[in-house]
Specification:
Layout lengths: L5 H12 L8 E4 L2 E3 L7 E2 L1 E4 L5 E5 L1 H4 L8 E4 L4 E4 L1 E6 L1 H5 L6 E2 L6 H14 L5 E6 L1 H5 L5 H6 L7 E5 L4 E4 L1 H6 L12 E5 L5 E7 L2 H8 L4 H20 L2 E9 L5 H10 L6 E7 L6 H10 L10 E9 L32 H13 L3 E6 L2 H12 L8 E4 L8 H6 L3 E4 L7 H6 L1 H4 L9 H6 L4 E3 L10 H8 L10 H7 L2 H6 L17 E4 L16 E6 L2 E5 L4
Parallel strand pairs: 1-6, 2-7, 8-15, 9-10, 10-11, 15-16, 16-17, 17-18, 18-19, 19-20, 20-21
Antiparallel strand pairs: 1-4, 2-3, 4-5, 7-22, 11-12, 12-14, 13-14, 22-23, 23-24
Helix pairs in contact: 9-10, 11-12, 12-13
Length: 554
């Protein structure tokens, strides 16, 4: 079949798209379809039935018997079609919520710029607490002035709590410290550090889980806040669809703050645009018996028609390297004041093993944040204790002891990476004062991949941009850490991600019998230089054969 001239095809395409919903079957043809099916890697046409499943895929001749006069035919004019992306680690609600978005700072700024922005925000804000995010921890600490006093100098009568760019630290003024109950006698909470001066006074910087001391006071459950969370879920749907993401795991569902109810409300109203798995947050400060019972009671695998499932648990084992809170096997070269020489634990190895073992028996899969090499080793030990139950993943995986590399495959542990632009030679060099030559071993993505480990890519949105295309470009741009080729990167964002979400039998590749979760790009990324992959645009996203996003220009 000869393709129509571009402009004519473009007009016909726009007209035909409008009729997709009414069609009995839909034919996508004159396309370059990358299936992520090793038995049939490429195709040019596929047919979607009225239930949103793929009934035929291949050449025009292969699908001809499934096309009749009632079939809606869409000529894609040679564009690339991929399976829908599946982001196994995104903070959909948090990234879209206005609850903490009172004042946005730029991590590239400096202390005077941040103070000026905060003063401006304070003049406009009406809530009791001034909340925000985006400052850089080390730039603040290098200012050689008390972070608390810096805030007090511009805002003293109302509490201020600003989240650091990675979400692993908070900057508070004196009023916020007072309301959070932090004074010279306050012990460090489990998984957190209250930075103090030589007199024992809190400096205004809280590391890791210590930040919850303030957030629990700033964001107490309320009807108004519940609506904010619900609206955040809805806003997140549009961002997912715009980026070609048809499945997602919300990687930290604060079920004590009302996040779960917000997701359930959107699902009940049929407002989700992606298949969604919720990762319930395991609070390190709660009583173990009570929390385990509560988590088990929230398990919900849904049914075949459900777009929402509650089937995963999110743990933090440790913090992050640049806070010196990631848990290491050997001491840091230099640590922040008050932080142990090897970092910290949110969950000790013994507690983690108990949680993982018991929750796996209840059907949950684990999503374990582990950045330091000791934390990764502890996470593998906990997975080992399940005796093969579950599909568990370790996320971030920035440092791995060589002895633990083969254990990933032995235990069927998934390695989930977020290869952000930060992992450049200069970034690695910046970590040398803290961890020495280990800095150059960070993010062993290629090593684990070549060891036969199942590797997934994800965004950690909004710590990183959401775009899977940008993440894939980064995954191919990190020298010896890079994945070997684009096909590996696409599979990590589709079929291997589908396995992680327990839906590889119905999604993750384009083949007969699977759901028509797919996207259309404006450029064939297989023909582009690596540095151009992130500039491709999603034109069209289908979920189960139904349109959930169309680029206005398409």
């Amino acid at each position: 079949m000869r393709a129509a001239p571009f402009l004519a095809a473009f007009g016909l395409l726009a007209a035909s798209l409008a009729g997709v919903a009414e069609a009995r079957t839909t034919l996508l043809h004159n396309a370059k379809i990358y299936t992520v099916n090793s038995a049939q890697p490429w195709a040019s046409a596929l047919v979607i039935d009225e239930d949103g499943s793929i009934v035929a895929i291949g050449s025009d001749e292969d699908v001809a018997e499934y096309v009749d006069d009632e079939t809606e035919q869409i000529d894609l004019d040679g564009r690339l079609v991929l399976p829908g992306f599946q982001d196994t680690h995104a903070h959909v609600l948090d990234a879209s919520s206005e609850a903490q978005a009172g004042c946005e700072l730029s991590p590239e700024g400096d202390v005077p710029q941040w103070l000026h922005a905060l003063k401006t925000c304070a003049a406009d804000a009406e809530d009791e607490w001034l909340l925000g995010s985006g400052f850089g921890l080390h730039a603040l600490l290098e200012a050689k002035q008390s972070p608390r006093a810096l805030l007090d100098g511009i805002i003293s009568e109302r509490p201020v709590a600003i989240m650091e760019e990675t979400s692993h630290a908070y900057w508070l003024n004196s009023k916020a410290l007072e309301l959070a109950g932090i004074d010279t006698k306050t012990p460090n909470p489990v998984g957190g550090i209250i930075l103090r001066d030589e007199q024992g006074e809190a400096t205004g910087v809280l590391l890791d889980n210590a930040g919850d001391l303030a957030l629990d006071k700033a964001l107490p459950p309320s009807k108004a806040l519940q609506d904010v969370y619900y609206q955040a879920v809805l806003a997140g749907q549009d961002e997912l669809a715009k980026n070609g993401i048809t499945s997602v795991a919300d990687a930290r569902v604060f079920w004590r703050r009302g996040h779960l109810e917000a997701w359930q409300k959107a699902a009940d109203k049929d407002q989700l645009k992606a298949r969604t798995v919720l990762d319930l947050w395991a609070y390190p400060q709660l009583d173990d018996d009570e929390q385990l019972a509560a988590l088990k009671g929230m398990y919900d695998p849904g049914n075949d028609d459900s777009l929402l499932r509650v089937t995963q648990i999110k743990f933090y084992v440790d913090g992050i390297i640049h806070n010196t809170t990631a848990r290491l096997q050997k001491p840091y070269g230099q640590s922040l004041p008050g932080v142990g020489s090897k970092g910290l634990y949110y969950f000790s190895p013994e507690r983690l093993e108990r949680y993982v073992r018991e929750l796996s028996k209840s059907g949950f899969d684990m999503h374990i944040h582990a950045i330091g090499d000791q934390a990764v080793s502890d996470a593998l030990d906990a997975i080992d204790a399940t005796r093969g139950q579950g599909r568990h993943r370790i996320t971030h995986v920035e440092l791995v002891d060589n002895a633990d590399v083969p254990r990933f495959k032995q235990l069927n542990a998934i390695a989930d990476f977020q290869p952000s632009p930060y992992f450049t030679p200069s970034f690695l060099k910046d970590n040398v004062p803290m961890i020495g030559e280990r800095a150059y071993q960070m993010l062993p993505m290629r090593q684990l991949y070549e060891s036969g480990v199942r590797v997934t890519l994800s965004s950690d949105w909004d710590v990183n941009p959401l775009s899977p295309l940008g993440i894939m470009q980064n995954a191919l741009s990190l020298g010896e850490r890079s994945l070997p080729n684009l096909a590996a990167a696409v599979k990590a964002y589709t079929l291997d991600a589908a396995y992680t979400l327990r839906q590889e039998q119905s999604t993750g590749s384009l083949e007969v019998g699977k759901q028509a979760d797919l996207l259309v790009l404006d450029k064939n990324i297989f023909d582009l230089p690596t540095k151009q992959i992130g500039k491709a645009k999603v034109l069209w996203t289908l979920l189960g054969g139904e349109e959930v996003y169309r680029n206005p220009a398409f």
